[in-house]
Request: fold
Amino acid sequence: MEAKTQTTAPRILIVDDDELIHKLLGAILQKAGFSCLDALGGQEGLELARSERPELIILDIMMPGMSGFEVMRALKSSPGTSSIPVIFLSGKFHNREKALARELGAADFMEKPFERSELLARVKTYLTLRRQEDDLSFYNNRLVNLAREALGLLGQSRSGRLESLPGELAASLGDSLRRAQEAMTSMENQWVVFSAFVKPFLAGQGDSYYRESLAMIPEAMARLRLEIENIGSVSRELSAISGPGPADEA
Reply:
């Protein structure tokens, strides 16, 4: 079982009633290698988000009919779209609007007009954050299953119901643990490079909102690293009761 990989260009849904914004954002994002989906209204954007499941949404606030805030509430209320990062786009953000955007779970917000470099930095930031979160979730689930199997066997051993562990099973557990450790190290290295790139764009905003976003992934990785270490202890204890593997018998 392998973590899923991104094989196509990340899809970004643009929801705005201004066709000029669609042309401008589309030109910038497509040149940077992204694929764009366009919706000229809130209801259309919500339907596209539900059917296409884009990797990120850029969402205008003031639109006729369904406002951006209403779209955001609907997105967050559905399991299929609640995890999609949303960047709000508006002509001017007041403190009240910023507070509501955060309360609704927005990843970020940008004011019009915007700089190309700033737009791309923020888009890449939240696409990377989501990919890292997906990877962490994948490896966490795999480790939970591994931990349950290992702890169950260890419990049988301690109770005297398991006198020895087949060498093949011990090798399988060891291999799974090794792969998880390698994946964890890879994610940690990726995060060092990524955070160094993005901090100049976000950390200088003078807003704890961005600092909290940048802290989420390291905290999750630290918890996962601890889980790996705990499972490693169980695996070593299991090795003490395992039968000899093919290498040991040779």
Summary: Confidence is low (pLDDT under 50) at residues 1-5, 243-250.
